[in-house]
Every structure is written in C-alpha cells, then in structure tokens.
Amino acid sequence: MAAKISTKVDPRHDYMHPLGKEDNFNESMYFNFYDTGAGLGGWLRAGNRANEGYAEISVCLYLPDGRVGFMFQRPEIGGNDAFDAGGLRLEVLEAGRRLRSVYEGPVLELREPQQMSNPRAAFKNNPMATVRLDLEHSAVGPMYGDTGNEGESSAPPEQQFAAAHYEQHMRVRGSLAFNDETWTIDGFGLRDHSWGPCYWQAIHRYEWLTMNFGEDFGAMVSVIQRDEAGENLSVGGVIVRGDTVEEIVKAEITAEYQDNGLYHEALRARVETAGGLNLEIEGRVKSFIPLRNRRAGKVTYIGEGLTEWLCEGRRGYGLSEFLRQTG
Predict the structure, then answer these.
(1) Beta-carbon-side half-sphere exposure of residue 165 (alpha carbons within 13 Å)
(2) Tally of CB atoms within 10 A around 104
(3) What is the DSSP letter of 74?
(4) Distance between CA atoms of 47 and 58, rounded to whole angstroms?
(5) Assign residue 86 a region: left if phi > 0, alpha if psi is -120 to 50, beta otherwise?
(6) DSSP for residue 153
(7) Residues in contact with 29: Cβ distance below 8 Å, sequence separation at least 6, in sequence order
(8) Dihedral sign computed on CA atoms, order 304, 318, 277, 246
(9) What is the pLDDT of residue 183?
C-alpha cells in the first residue's frame, strides 16, 4: 500500500501545535545535513513529551576522520511551547522556507561509534567534547507529507506513531565548533516535523532513506511494516526536482548487513513513481552508529547510517535509518 503524501502542507504547521491529551503525545522536529567539501554531516532531533514531563534531545555528528559525536538527553519541560531544552534550540525564521537549529553543549566523542550498542559502557569509556552547532536550513523544494486531521487517528494512542508528519529538502549553511576544531558548513539535508501520540514500539520495522544530489534533485524512500505478520505494509516517498514532487508508489529496499545481521552497510532501492518513472538507487554507508529506545521492557533498535547515494549517474549524500524491534 502506498503511503499518503500531499504537497499542500500549510506552512503554519511549522509552529507548535496544541498539546494533546494523550500520555504519549509527542511533537518533534528533525534535521539532517551533509557538506561534501568539509566531509562531515549529522542530524539532530527534539521531541517534546510534555505530558510525560520531558523532551527527547538527540545530536549526532559524523566527523571527517570517522569519529562520531553523540548526545542523548531527557531534560525536563513544562509544556509544548517551543523546542528549547538540553542545549538544543529550533527556531522558525520563515514558515515553510527557513529554520534555524542551534546546539550548545557536550557530546560523547566516539572513535568507535558501534560502542553505542552498549550506551552505559560507551558513556563510561569515552571522553566528552564541547560543541557549538549553528545552522540555517533553507528550502530547496516544497513541503510534503500528511498532516491529516491534526494528527488524529482511530488507533489507540499506544499503537500510534505520529500520524501527522511532513518533510522538506533543504540547503544547509552554518558552522560547527567541536572542541578546538571548527568547520564552515555549506551543504544539503532534509527536515521533518511530526506531532501526535507516538511510541517507537508501535511499528514493527521500517527503512527510511533521505538523500540530496544537489539543489535540483532529492529523494526520500520509506518502507514501513506496522505489524510482525507483515500484513500492514506501507511504502512511499518522493522524488523532488526543484518545485516538482513525484510521488513514489512502489518501493523495494534490499540491504547488506554486517555479520550480526542487524547493522546495514550497503543497500539498494528500486522505486516507481505515480508517473511511471523507474529508478534504482544504490547506497553505501560511510559512518554508522547503533542506537536504541527502551520502554516497558521493550527494546527498539535504530541504526543510523550516514550514506553515500548513487542515482541517475549522480552522487549524493544523506541518511539511512533502519528500525527494528529486537526485544
């Protein structure tokens, strides 16, 4: 089943939404980026779980020499008025067009990022670095997604995964200071914004691929399996060429994994758009970190790969995110 995607997203959705009554109501924004000249990239996410009294703050930086800077926090918050907690601040400069992300604070400096498979040991055995990241994200294509009825769904809240959600491909400029190292960033990326009841454990598995090949060409591919039996499967995505969005109606993703059968290191996506265009996209993971989310005794694995993409003879970069329920 193809996922529902619309390009008629009201830019006013860039602002905060009323806090729902559900215990697991979550409003989140996510940004990723890659600068080919500097050879570095990253992603950051803020998720407000105001009814639970905290935010989820993630910052991940893939440095040119293979190190990864990573931080996850759950700072206390008292409401859903802004994304501003734990040193991470997200601002709307011009709704639908320009946003700013700033992080000032510590990150774990990982020379072996796969140590994050055991977060307790990783935080104990690796040094902390001081970071200031300041980025402006400017649209290079339209907003697309499904804002539905303000994120409402007939499913029980504990079975939902942010029904309202949209994305946009972006130009990214700014700076990164990592201890005494500094870089000027001029690259591309993608952002998303979602709100509504959300648990990471509500989906059995997914693959989410984001990529930019320049200011004129980007893509997103998504395959979501909502139940273990595989009967509730949704596929979708977009091909973005300037202001034109071609909806993906068929997608097949195959991957090569490390010996543990979990950490992806190469992948291929075959997609078909509503207009009948068939594309093959190849990806190779350049840097990888395994993460997890735990709730009520359940463990959700999330593999984050900074990925080099090839499509239509062009080379691009972005993220490949794989989610699995592992325990």
Answers:
(1) 17
(2) 13
(3) -
(4) 9
(5) left
(6) -
(7) 45, 46, 83, 90, 191, 192, 193
(8) positive
(9) 98
Q: With beta carbons less than 8 A apart as the criterion, state whether 304 and 43 touch.
A: yes
Q: What is the pLDDT of residue 1?
A: 53
CA distance 321 to 149: 27
Q: Where are the domains of the chain?
A: 11-325
Low-confidence stretches of the chain (pLDDT beneath 50): 150-151
Question: If 0-12 CB within 10 Å is exposed, 13-18 middle and 19+ buried, where does residue 273 land?
Answer: middle
CA 197, 238, 282, 259: dihedral to nearest 10 degrees? 10
Q: What is the pLDDT of residue 6?
A: 80
The pLDDT of residue 160 = 62
Backbone angles phi, psi at 65, to 5 degrees: -90, 10
Q: What is the pLDDT of residue 151?
A: 45
In angstroms, the CA 325 to CA 265 distance is 19
Integer-rounded Cα Rg, in Å, for the chain is: 18
What whole-number distance in Å separates Cα of residue 110 and Cα of residue 130?
Answer: 13
pLDDT tens column, 104-154: 999 999 999 999 999 999 999 999 999 999 999 999 999 999 886 544 555
pLDDT at residue 226, as a whole number: 85
Does domain 11-325 fall under CATH 2.40.370.10? My reply is yes
CA distance 239 to 207: 17
Query: Which tokens belong to 165?
Result: 């959600």
In this structure, what DSSP letter does residue 142 have?
Answer: -
Q: Residue type for 80, please? A: N
